[in-house]
Amino acid sequence: MTAYLVLAAVLLATAPALDIYTKMILTVSFIYGLTAVSIDLLWGYAGVLSYAHGALFGIGAYAVAITATSRGNGLLSTVVLGGAIGIVVACLVALAVGGLSFHSRADWLYVGVVSFAVPFIFERLVLAGGEVTGSSSGLSAFMQSVFKPNQWYLLTGIILLLVLSGATVLVRSDTGTLFKAIRENEIRCTYLGIRVNRVKGVLFTATAALTAFAGALLASSQNVVAPDLGGIMAATMMVIWVALGGRGTLVGPVIAAVVIDYVTAIVGAEFPFIWQLGLGVAFLLVVLYLPGGLMSLLRTPMAILSRRFRPAESDDRHADLVIRASDSETPPLNGDEPPVLTLRGVTCRFGSFTAVSEINLEAGAGEVVSIVGPNGAGKSTLMRCISNGTYRTAGSVHVGGQPIKQLSPARVAALGVSQKFQHASVFGALTVGECLRIAQARTVRPSQWRRDRVLTLPRSAVRVIEATGLSALLSERAEDLSHGQKQALELAMVMATDPKVVLLDEPTAGLSHEERTVLGDVFRQIASTEGKLVILVEHDLDFVREISSRILVLHQGQLLLDGSVEDVANSRLVQEIYTGTFDEQELADARES
User: Fold this and answer.
1) pLDDT tens digits, residue range 149-182?
2) What is the fold, at CATH topology level, of the domain defined by 341-592?
3) Are 17 and 253 in contact (CB under 8 A)?
4) CB 558 within 8 A of CB 541
């Protein structure tokens, strides 16, 4: 925050030295800096690229202009009323765009396509608005100036610094970490029970309000609005500011917005074609060779200065993170508990191909149920049918007696199902401590203004962390971990959700014998000590024999055997399936039985 105080001091110090024209230009530049903060919060931190914010900016501006024109005065109350109307309308538009873009059947491309149409719709509405909007001429001289140019310069500059400071606090908080996690790995967030679309919708609406507020400031300070304020060119320019300055830096996009807008006002008027061409070339060069934006050039020297002047004890922002085990006790198993997981006729088809057919299963707490079978047997598909209510074609799945129906993975996770994927799925750009924090975001609401230094995890998660040595790696970035450590981290994240049903899809793939032994002990303890139901997909029959209480055999999407470890492991049919020497009639008889 010291840097922002310095900028505030510079702002105040330069006020008397600048001429009126320069202050008027910088006032507009500061206002555009607010929109850069909005786009960077959304795109740089949450990974949502929006072109709709150009139109949202125009909505805020036109709301003030139309309100002042209709009321026929330039009082401050009129500005406040118009600004409030603009913010409300912008939020409603944002909710509509979010509803079309953020849902279970949408991917990252939806918001780009939907939001791209919004500026065009805005311009068409303004042009068709007649005297109300001024059509192609816009509106001007609709109010007396509330403040003088010098006052607008200071006011907008201070507002920009306050917003920038608030945004910095937000992105450095646990909520900011959640935004980054969504940007890094949205699917992993969903299967941890995080309502990703809801988070995106809230952030989209909040940044819409800020953008509309910036538009209201522009109309109030400049006393003129035009259709291109909310058009596609304005929206594209906002995206360019963020890309040039550096996504996910906040300061970079603000500097880019202020500098580019100021230079455009000075140079663009004299050499418009050359300036636009140069800006376009610069944008292409940055996209191709500096994907981190111009701020990435300063990252190394800033890091060196930070290490030089920061106290040694504060070099590691996670050095003081404390991991605690939850005080809740796991009730002992008495053997009479109802099934934790029940499958009835579960089927999954992809067109004419049936991946899983008529699977029936009951499994209870404390069990380690292994699913084995050759490649293509439908093992991973069956796991998805349990963790994702929209995945199966027919049949039913009950968790703790509750049907998952057609629930999304996030809502299934809320019922107590958590899945570890076949390939380690973690948040590469986050530290181990941050990954574990995100795993609890469904049940422990992340702070919006600070990082919690105490992380209370279920005992099963702490058991994984201690057994695998992750406790000494809390400040390491997940992408820098070894393969085995990433597997352990994902398992710890899964257990941090405190699930009833733990789905593990080939968790020991690529691990050494020592790492397999450690994880095998952990799986047994999770089931026997913590009372979880562990369902494991694995190819290593020796490993399966060591840790399982039951084994299921799948072949060509059908359940062939469901029995004890000895019965299945010593079955001649299982051996023939793996070697490809089975008899089709014998296989058919096994299916019948």
Assistant:
1) 889 999 999 999 999 999 999 999 999 999 999 9
2) Rossmann fold (3.40.50)
3) no
4) no
